[in-house]
TrEMBL record:
Residues 43-89 form the F-box domain. Residues 316-335 have a biased composition (Basic and acidic residues). Residues 308-335 are annotated as: Disordered. This is F-box/WD repeat-containing protein 5 isoform X3. SUPFAM superfamilies: F-box domain, WD40 repeat-like. One of its GO terms (cellular component) is SCF ubiquitin ligase complex. GO terms for biological process: protein ubiquitination. WD repeats lie at residues 127-159, 587-619. PROSITE patterns: FBOX, WD_REPEATS_2, WD_REPEATS_REGION.
Amino acid sequence: MTDNQDLMKTNNFQRKMSPEEVDAAGLDADSISFVEHRKRLLANSWYHIPKPLLLNIFQYLSAPELTSAGLTCSTWHQTSTDDLLWRALIRKDFGVKPSTGIQGQTFWYSEYKRLSYHVPHYQTSELKKHTDQVLHVSFAHNGTMFATCSKDGYVVVWNAQHPVAIKYQRDMTKFCWKFTHFSQFNQSDTLLLVSGVHFGLPQSTSGEIAVFSLGDDLELQCRVLMKPYDICGAWYSDQHFLSGDVHRLGHLESQSVLWLNKASQETASEHIPIMNQMFRFYNCNGSSVRAAMFAYCSVLDHGDSQTLCDSSQTSSRERSPNHSEDDKSNYESREFSDSLYDIQGTSKRICGSECGPGTEDFEPCANEIQVTERCSDDESDISELSETSVETEFSEEDELCVQEDKFLIFTTGSNTYSPHQIGIKRIKPISFPRRMDPGLPFRERIANLNREYQPPNENPNEAQNANAEGTDYDEVDHLIDLHGHIIGMGLSPDHRYLYVNARPWPPGYVVENPMMPPPCAQEIDIHVIDLGEMKEVGKVLRSHIAYTPFNECFFIALDVCNEFVASGAEDKHGYLWDRKYEICLNKYPHQDVVNCVAFNPRDSEMLVTVSDDCTVKVWHSKNRSKELGFDTKSLSTAHEVRSNCCGHRSTMSSVRRPANAEMKRLISRFPVQFGW
């Protein structure tokens, strides 16, 4: 029997064969029946349309139409996944620049599927436990739980697996907290750091950090005062965290002191330190250190790393506990003299009562040990411990000794009190002393204080400034000015890139009065800073809006995963962008301001948003919703934003869709061309 492909090429294939032709071909009845059947089948099919022509037709289809066409047969499926078609679709639907390429073995079809099918899209849960504005959300590193903070004074820990349920909760108003506003899990997810605001006057900036263990219940480990409260605190290691204080020096001048704290502060001896001073920074024009966080430096493998390290070690004003082995002995002696627990009264620290008159608006250092009179027996015991006999051994097993170099990142300012600069300070591994120097006996300290006492100056600012001139301050390694009010920061998972929410100031605006910051734009820009190069890179992302006046700006947090970056906004939506193509993909609706968003670190297809509407919403991708067995038809959805620029939906297509008459004319050509 003649092969099917040969039959299709014969001139007589489109008409009924005559008896003479059958006899000449030598075909039997079965072969003739088979040929006639194939003729009828192919007469009503597009199966054998050449691929170039099929591609020409498919280019006018949308993504859903193209996917449906691919279900017809194997040939159409192969053609419908052609990379040229999906490259055109991803540029048309998502506004990806034509010059943008793909890396590795990724195909445009896979990229389109990732941007549409693996992005958080369906609202799978709406949690209404909180009774007031929800300000913050953070995930555990293992992705099994997340914590929310609210103005109702509660911190709530939720199970992340569906169905989402409360695992722990704690009412922080029992500790005289006004509300909670920040939380963070340690690296092992065994401890939870929570920071909040104390009850007080509206102008009060006093706050506190509480650390809880995540066992059978939230068990309180320690509490540390903090000022201002928007330092927030951060985990330096698995068992040590950062806190801070600010102390007034004079008119619009202050100093920010950052402390390293032990998470478990139970101690059997008063000579065992539980805190250690890290840095002391000078502030001007009413500014201070805020929103501190840590980033690993392991991503740096070029010359900038060594340069930055050298500059930190050779700084003439450096007084950080970050030194080489050659300087270990010098460091230990300075460490005790500059420690928080230095009770000799001869330290150069300026805090609490040492600031002189006129500091009633600023509280004394919250963690400073108050000098109280002791009995004679205690004095004799302390006097036996001289400075040379103090134990300064450091355990090799201490987790601080094995920490990698890190960056301390914070917001600050120099022109006005509103934060407009990113400060970056490199930290070498820190050693925590085993014992602290008890100092001189109580009576000798009192005698020294009496000898050093001087009548107060009539001008308190002059006295404070004179005292501040002899104080050593740590220098910031890098300052990056964004010329705008910074309202949020987030690190990429590899700690290489820092994403910053900022409301820009007018171009070229010069600050004349530090107490009158420039007006802010309503648009929020996301700046990307490369911590390896210490400079701003990439495109400024803009889609979200803020309406709060410049003198009342508050934090709008953002979060970053490997593929996406998400942020809250004051226009009642959360936003999500693709990091690779720098395009806005989705908007997540709420009834009020969206304060914070967070990705599940183990599943970027899960996103949590929190809002002033007192709700916590959980979003899953189309793919994950299907795996979890949701009826997607009954779920609320995010608003898809197919952006050509600035996050606005594009209504024009880069490929013109032909009119119906033209489509019919194109289709009508195919039977004529192939003799159908």
